[in-house]
Amino acid sequence: MTAFNDLMAYTRETEALGQVMGRLGWDQETMMPRGAAEQRGDEMAALSGVLHARRTDPRVGDWLEAAQATDPAGEAALRLIRRSFERTTKVPARLAAALAKTTSIAQGKWAEARKAQDVAAFVPVLDEVLKLKREEAAALASGGDLYDALLDDYEPGARAADLEAMFGALRPRLVALREAVLGSAHQPAELTGTYAETIQLELSAKLAAAFGYDFTRGRIDKAVHPFSSGSGSDVRITTRVAEDDPFNCFYSTIHEVGHACYEQGISPSYALTPMGQGVSMGVHESQSRIYENQLGRSRAFTGWLFSQMQEAFGGAGAADADAFYATVNKVKPGYIRTEADEVQYNLHVLLRFDLERDLVSGQLEAADLEEAWNTRFERDFGYPVDKPSNGCLQDVHWSVGLFGYFPTYSLGNVYAGCLNKALRESVLGVDAALASGDATPATAWLKENLQQHGGLRTPRETIRHACGFEPSEAPLLDYLEAKFGAIYKL
Questions:
Q1: What end-to-end distance do the CA atoms of the chain give, in Å?
Q2: Beta-bridge partners for 221
Q3: Which one is catalytic: 136, 155, 256, 292?
Q4: Does the annotation mark 256 as catalytic?
Q5: 160-487, which class in CATH?
Q6: Where along the chain do its domains lie?
Q7: Tens digit of each residue's pLDDT (9 = 90 or more) over 303-354
Q8: Are 434 and 301 in contact (CB under 8 A)?
Q9: Of 38, 57, 314, 375, which one has the greatest count of Cβ atoms within 10 A?
Q10: Predicted TM-score of the model (pTM)
Q11: Binding residue numbers
Q12: Separation of alpha carbons 477 and 480, rounded Å
């Protein structure tokens, strides 16, 4: 037990420093002065070096060899620490620091290029990030597939070939549903009107509270790209506002609250341990997507949101609650992944999945990304990209080195479909509560069956434990076809 206790005490300090680095990233997106980007890059590189040194300290290997666990939580801790140690020791400290600095700088250059609609200004730094990520992938892969090595950071145990098969099963039914919906004679109305930013933010905070976000351990700020960060007692989210589209703000908030509530819901006994955070990005995304879509875009909850918008804005842009529900879920052409409806969202992800695999493998270079993106987008969606911020500059992920991250969004949707099926079969009165603005029956089930366990199990085991069956794409597809078939009278 001495080796185990020493290892866990050391790991707590490492995890605490990791949280500090995460807070620096949050600050960079929300509060940091524009002129601080270069200095922040140096700060991130320095802290990354400290973390890399701690995670590769030979004592960790010695403790792992000697440590013995006495319960499932201890066994999970050793499994996760061993995995981190083995992966981190493969990456040279020089490379870890270079990645931290370069991606910190690239994030600012991406934001500037996006604002200026200037892909050429972003290409050089993206090329630097890409070269470093290829080097990291080669170190991690040890002769195996480069993309799988990066994917494993976000979804441990997942393989691109397996995801490709799952996505291949998703695509035909999604495309068929999209064509049927867009070709239907019954088309919900568009949202109209102008909705003041201050009131949107007030209502978004009310929505966050309705889904159980604990403001004593969290906060909401604005950012270019909504995100969630932190864990345990300090979990922060961001949202964004467009005065002609309040749904952007509201559903970005609910989405990020799903992430945040997962972190806030993990057992306090796991704080600052490897189990004290979401087990994978796919499982994390399952929480944000079920909060946002199966719960937040349900007929029951949108009925309550309709009344809230009438009260806050003096109108909700729809004649009644049924029309409002259809408008919230309207399927329409669009460029932006984060604003996409449930039917088309995964098609946006599959585009990115294929492009980033080509970027990592070297089949596609940074200089050719815009043309490849635009060609693929027009092929998949039937209309051309009109500007870079609606194309290859819309997402922050590649600028910060998150290659292998995108497929976890669709995997999260698949998991959310499974969880929704299990939730509805297990809990009575979910819709009745949602209709009054109370998501507690649903969120309490998710906390009990999934969130509290953090990283105790592997990702697929986590979903299987919560649902009672093996995850597959079928529940998601069945849910989408039933929901949108009814809305569009198919």
A1: 63
A2: 238
A3: 256
A4: yes
A5: mainly alpha
A6: 2-144, 160-487
A7: 999 999 999 999 898 999 999 999 999 999 999 998 899 999 999 999 999 9
A8: yes
A9: 57
A10: 0.93
A11: 255, 259, 285
A12: 5
